[in-house]
User: Fold Formate acetyltransferase activating enzyme from Prolixibacter bellariivorans.
Amino acid sequence: MKGIIFDIKRFAVHDGPGIRTTVFLQGCPLRCWWCHNPESQSLVCSTWQKHVAVSGKIFQQSKESGYEIDSDKLFIEIQRDEVFMSESGGGVTFSGGEPLYQPEFLFEVMKLCRDAGIHTVLDTAGVASEKVLGNSMPLTDLYFFDIKHPDPTLHMHYTNVSLEPILRNLDRLLDAGKKVQIRVPVIPGINNGPEQIEKLKNLLIPRLERIEGIDFLPFHATGGHKYQALQMENRMNGIPSMKKEELSDLLEEFEGLGVKVSIGG
Ligand code: SF4
Assistant:
């Protein structure tokens, strides 16, 4: 079966345990204001013009967003790194976009990986039907599960999707005993004020004993130029990237709850 991916990153060390190969699947139902891969949102392959600076001159470079690949061929690409994965306790991570947006293709590749004994991480925003989520469970060793905003109204405002079904999916995974690492993008002025942090705590406290930990991801403004090239509105225009140090209070506050916390990204 064919699917659409937009990148393969090899030797990744922040996408799960050990050395990993990360596959980025094209397509996402969310529209997060801070998305730094806006070219990955559409499920349609496209070409866009990237500006590249060389010796003070600006050149245009055509960039493909998304390319079709057969599940067998993708598996062969993943398998190329198997020696590094097995020696480091690593594996493969499926990210996006939203990988569950192409469930049949994703599951076919994941099944091949599982049959070959390759550890699998699924990095998801949790937007999927109950059936799709259920089908992912036997194929996934560890979930990276995003909580974009703890307030239902603001979640809809900033991502264009509801929070409630995402939380239901989170609870389905936890009830099934799956390993789940929560990931929270920290976006200045959007979800990092005291009121929003309190709401995040209230959302996570009843679930803390069943999650592996929380990873806070500081906002990166690195995708800003892509919005211009894609002729999309960049609603984070002019807001600088956050430094990891700016999250140290958050780290302390959540560590005080007795959960493993890290700052990633
Ligand atoms: S879930 Fe990820 S890929 Fe999708 S819009 Fe949000 S940041 Fe972008």
